[in-house]
Protein backbone atom coordinates (compact mmCIF):
# COMPACT_ATOMS: atom_id res chain seq x y z
CA UNK A 1 0.00 0.00 0.00
CA UNK A 2 1.38 3.40 -1.01
CA UNK A 3 1.41 6.24 1.52
CA UNK A 4 -0.81 8.39 -0.69
CA UNK A 5 -3.55 5.79 -0.43
CA UNK A 6 -4.01 6.60 3.24
CA UNK A 7 -6.91 8.90 4.08
CA UNK A 8 -6.29 12.47 5.20
CA UNK A 9 -6.74 11.73 8.90
CA UNK A 10 -4.06 9.04 8.78
CA UNK A 11 -1.69 11.27 6.86
CA UNK A 12 -2.16 14.10 9.35
CA UNK A 13 -1.42 11.69 12.18
CA UNK A 14 1.72 10.53 10.37
CA UNK A 15 2.91 14.10 9.76
CA UNK A 16 2.38 14.96 13.43
CA UNK A 17 5.31 12.69 14.37
CA UNK A 18 7.74 14.39 11.98
CA UNK A 19 9.94 17.41 12.57
CA UNK A 20 9.65 20.48 10.35
CA UNK A 21 12.35 19.43 7.88
CA UNK A 22 10.92 15.94 7.47
CA UNK A 23 7.44 17.32 6.90
CA UNK A 24 8.73 19.67 4.22
CA UNK A 25 10.73 16.96 2.47
CA UNK A 26 7.75 14.61 2.42
CA UNK A 27 5.50 17.38 1.12
CA UNK A 28 7.76 17.82 -1.90
CA UNK A 29 7.02 14.32 -3.17
CA UNK A 30 3.47 14.89 -4.41
CA UNK A 31 0.58 17.33 -4.46
CA UNK A 32 -1.53 15.34 -2.01
CA UNK A 33 1.17 15.35 0.66
CA UNK A 34 1.77 19.05 0.07
CA UNK A 35 -1.89 19.68 0.89
CA UNK A 36 -1.49 17.74 4.12
CA UNK A 37 1.63 19.77 4.96
CA UNK A 38 -0.41 22.95 4.50
CA UNK A 39 -3.20 21.85 6.84
CA UNK A 40 -3.35 24.37 9.74
CA UNK A 41 -4.00 21.59 12.24
CA UNK A 42 -0.32 20.60 12.00
CA UNK A 43 0.93 24.02 13.00
CA UNK A 44 -0.55 24.80 16.39
CA UNK A 45 2.88 24.34 18.02
CA UNK A 46 6.25 25.61 16.79
CA UNK A 47 9.65 25.17 18.47
CA UNK A 48 12.84 26.78 17.18
CA UNK A 49 16.37 26.26 18.47
CA UNK A 50 18.24 28.91 16.48
CA UNK A 51 17.43 32.20 14.73
CA UNK A 52 18.55 30.57 11.48
CA UNK A 53 15.57 28.21 11.68
CA UNK A 54 13.20 31.17 11.51
CA UNK A 55 14.26 31.86 7.95
CA UNK A 56 13.60 28.35 6.66
CA UNK A 57 10.61 27.54 4.51
CA UNK A 58 9.62 24.42 6.44
CA UNK A 59 6.68 25.61 8.52
CA UNK A 60 3.47 27.65 8.31
CA UNK A 61 2.38 30.65 10.34
CA UNK A 62 -1.31 31.28 10.76
CA UNK A 63 -4.27 31.65 13.11
CA UNK A 64 -3.90 28.01 14.17
CA UNK A 65 -0.63 28.72 16.00
CA UNK A 66 -1.20 28.50 19.76
CA UNK A 67 2.23 27.82 21.25
CA UNK A 68 5.57 29.28 20.12
CA UNK A 69 9.03 28.71 21.55
CA UNK A 70 12.34 30.23 20.38
CA UNK A 71 15.10 28.98 22.64
CA UNK A 72 18.66 29.62 21.57
CA UNK A 73 21.21 27.79 23.70
CA UNK A 74 24.64 28.60 22.31
CA UNK A 75 27.90 30.27 23.29
CA UNK A 76 26.96 33.02 20.83
CA UNK A 77 24.05 33.95 23.06
CA UNK A 78 26.58 35.48 25.45
CA UNK A 79 27.59 37.93 22.72
CA UNK A 80 24.03 38.90 21.86
CA UNK A 81 23.17 39.45 25.52
CA UNK A 82 26.11 41.76 26.12
CA UNK A 83 25.22 45.44 26.45
CA UNK A 84 25.69 47.13 23.06
CA UNK A 85 28.19 49.67 24.34
CA UNK A 86 30.40 46.85 25.67
CA UNK A 87 30.67 44.96 22.37
CA UNK A 88 33.85 45.13 20.31
CA UNK A 89 33.73 45.60 16.53
CA UNK A 90 33.80 41.85 15.84
CA UNK A 91 30.89 41.23 18.21
CA UNK A 92 28.90 44.10 16.69
CA UNK A 93 29.43 42.73 13.18
CA UNK A 94 28.38 39.27 14.33
CA UNK A 95 25.18 40.57 15.94
CA UNK A 96 24.32 42.76 12.98
CA UNK A 97 23.95 39.70 10.73
CA UNK A 98 20.89 38.51 12.66
CA UNK A 99 19.95 41.45 14.88
CA UNK A 100 16.40 41.78 13.56
CA UNK A 101 15.76 38.11 12.79
CA UNK A 102 13.74 37.24 15.89
CA UNK A 103 12.04 40.63 16.17
CA UNK A 104 10.90 40.58 12.54
CA UNK A 105 9.62 37.05 12.98
CA UNK A 106 7.65 38.03 16.09
CA UNK A 107 6.13 41.00 14.29
CA UNK A 108 5.01 38.57 11.60
CA UNK A 109 3.47 36.44 14.35
CA UNK A 110 1.64 39.54 15.60
CA UNK A 111 0.03 40.01 12.20
CA UNK A 112 -0.76 36.38 11.41
CA UNK A 113 -1.25 34.53 14.69
CA UNK A 114 -3.87 36.36 16.78
CA UNK A 115 -4.79 33.21 18.73
CA UNK A 116 -1.36 32.67 20.28
CA UNK A 117 -1.64 31.35 23.84
CA UNK A 118 1.97 30.97 24.94
CA UNK A 119 5.34 32.41 23.98
CA UNK A 120 8.74 31.36 25.29
CA UNK A 121 11.93 33.23 24.37
CA UNK A 122 15.34 32.24 25.68
CA UNK A 123 18.65 33.77 24.69
CA UNK A 124 17.01 36.26 22.32
CA UNK A 125 19.21 39.22 23.14
CA UNK A 126 17.88 41.46 20.37
CA UNK A 127 14.18 41.28 21.27
CA UNK A 128 12.99 44.69 22.43
CA UNK A 129 10.24 45.98 24.69
CA UNK A 130 8.38 47.36 21.67
CA UNK A 131 8.28 43.93 20.07
CA UNK A 132 6.68 42.41 23.18
CA UNK A 133 4.28 45.36 23.40
CA UNK A 134 3.06 44.76 19.85
CA UNK A 135 2.64 41.08 20.55
CA UNK A 136 0.55 41.72 23.68
CA UNK A 137 -1.65 44.10 21.71
CA UNK A 138 -2.16 41.78 18.76
CA UNK A 139 -2.47 38.49 20.66
CA UNK A 140 -5.11 39.29 23.30
CA UNK A 141 -5.50 35.63 24.32
CA UNK A 142 -1.86 35.23 25.38
CA UNK A 143 -1.81 33.41 28.71
CA UNK A 144 1.86 32.58 29.16
CA UNK A 145 4.89 34.78 28.45
CA UNK A 146 8.27 33.36 29.44
CA UNK A 147 11.40 35.42 28.80
CA UNK A 148 14.85 34.23 29.76
CA UNK A 149 18.23 35.87 29.24
CA UNK A 150 16.85 38.69 27.05
CA UNK A 151 19.02 41.71 27.86
CA UNK A 152 16.92 44.35 26.11
CA UNK A 153 13.79 43.55 28.09
CA UNK A 154 13.18 46.28 30.67
CA UNK A 155 10.41 47.65 32.86
CA UNK A 156 8.69 48.87 29.68
CA UNK A 157 7.72 45.25 29.00
CA UNK A 158 6.40 44.93 32.55
CA UNK A 159 4.33 48.09 32.05
CA UNK A 160 2.98 46.69 28.77
CA UNK A 161 1.88 43.60 30.67
CA UNK A 162 -0.15 45.72 33.11
CA UNK A 163 -1.78 47.62 30.23
CA UNK A 164 -2.36 44.91 27.62
CA UNK A 165 -1.92 41.53 29.31
CA UNK A 166 -5.50 41.03 30.40
CA UNK A 167 -5.43 37.30 29.61
CA UNK A 168 -1.93 36.70 30.95
CA UNK A 169 -1.63 34.18 33.78
CA UNK A 170 2.09 33.36 33.74
CA UNK A 171 4.98 35.80 33.36
CA UNK A 172 8.65 34.81 33.65
CA UNK A 173 11.49 37.31 33.24
CA UNK A 174 14.39 35.14 34.35
CA UNK A 175 17.96 36.42 33.86
CA UNK A 176 16.57 39.64 32.36
CA UNK A 177 18.95 41.91 34.23
CA UNK A 178 17.46 45.21 33.10
CA UNK A 179 14.09 44.76 34.81
CA UNK A 180 13.88 46.32 38.26
CA UNK A 181 12.29 45.45 41.57
CA UNK A 182 10.00 48.46 41.19
CA UNK A 183 8.76 47.16 37.84
CA UNK A 184 8.07 43.73 39.30
CA UNK A 185 6.19 45.22 42.25
CA UNK A 186 4.02 47.18 39.82
CA UNK A 187 3.03 43.96 38.05
CA UNK A 188 2.26 42.26 41.37
CA UNK A 189 0.10 45.19 42.41
CA UNK A 190 -1.80 45.72 39.18
CA UNK A 191 -1.99 42.09 38.00
CA UNK A 192 -2.44 39.97 41.14
CA UNK A 193 -3.72 37.00 39.14
CA UNK A 194 -0.43 36.70 37.18
CA UNK A 195 2.06 34.09 38.39
CA UNK A 196 5.24 36.17 38.27
CA UNK A 197 8.78 34.78 38.35
CA UNK A 198 12.03 36.70 38.00
CA UNK A 199 14.97 34.48 38.86
CA UNK A 200 18.36 36.22 38.70
CA UNK A 201 16.81 39.41 37.37
CA UNK A 202 15.98 42.39 39.56
CA UNK A 203 18.60 41.39 42.11
CA UNK A 204 21.33 41.33 39.48
CA UNK A 205 23.61 44.33 39.08
CA UNK A 206 23.00 45.78 35.59
CA UNK A 207 26.03 46.60 33.48
CA UNK A 208 27.14 50.17 34.12
CA UNK A 209 26.36 52.65 31.37
CA UNK A 210 29.37 54.43 29.85
CA UNK A 211 28.67 57.68 31.72
CA UNK A 212 28.32 55.92 35.05
CA UNK A 213 31.41 53.85 34.38
CA UNK A 214 33.42 56.99 33.63
CA UNK A 215 32.21 58.62 36.85
CA UNK A 216 33.23 55.57 38.85
CA UNK A 217 36.67 55.58 37.24
CA UNK A 218 37.16 59.28 38.05
CA UNK A 219 36.08 58.73 41.65
CA UNK A 220 38.47 55.81 41.91
CA UNK A 221 41.39 57.90 40.62
CA UNK A 222 40.63 60.65 43.16
CA UNK A 223 40.66 58.13 45.98
CA UNK A 224 44.03 56.85 44.80
CA UNK A 225 45.42 60.42 44.73
CA UNK A 226 44.21 61.01 48.26
UniProtKB/TrEMBL annotation:
GO terms for cellular component: SCF ubiquitin ligase complex. Keywords: Leucine-rich repeat, Ubl conjugation pathway. GO terms for biological process: SCF-dependent proteasomal ubiquitin-dependent protein catabolic process. InterPro entries: F-box-like_dom_sf, F-box_dom, Leu-rich_rpt_Cys-con_subtyp, LRR_dom_sf. Pfam families: F-box-like (PF12937). PANTHER family: PARTNER OF PAIRED, ISOFORM B-RELATED. This is FXL22 protein. The gene is Fbxl22.
Amino acid sequence: MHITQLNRECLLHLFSFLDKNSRKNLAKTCHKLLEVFQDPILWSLLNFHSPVELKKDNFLLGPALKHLSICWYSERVKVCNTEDWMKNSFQKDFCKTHENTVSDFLLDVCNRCPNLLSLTLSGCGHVTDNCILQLLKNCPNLKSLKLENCVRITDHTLKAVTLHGASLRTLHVDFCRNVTQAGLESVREKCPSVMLRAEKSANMIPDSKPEKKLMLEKASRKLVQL
